[in-house]
Model the fold of this input.
Amino acid sequence: MKSFCIAMSSLRKQIGLSQRQVASDLGISQALLSHYEKGAREPRLDFVVKACDYYGVSADYILGRSEERDNKTPLFTEVLNSALCGLQDLRAATDALIEKLEKTDSGD
Done:
């Protein structure tokens, strides 16, 4: 079974994010995340809970007590979905503006 430090590093790499990005998302410094991933520091319980929510895994999984990840939607997926919705809204607004400008240019 994986230890916390291995699980943290592995989960981050699986989704292709940098330590800097994950640390920012979790509200800690990159240096502290690096210490957690190397096993140089042990996190407090509140951070373990936050990391579980972020990666969408159970505490047992992230602590190396189980191979079952759980199938909750990870927080980063929710954030990405929210950003995608925002981009779709922006695209729709841009398309509407372009259409309006084209009508204005053609004299309609």
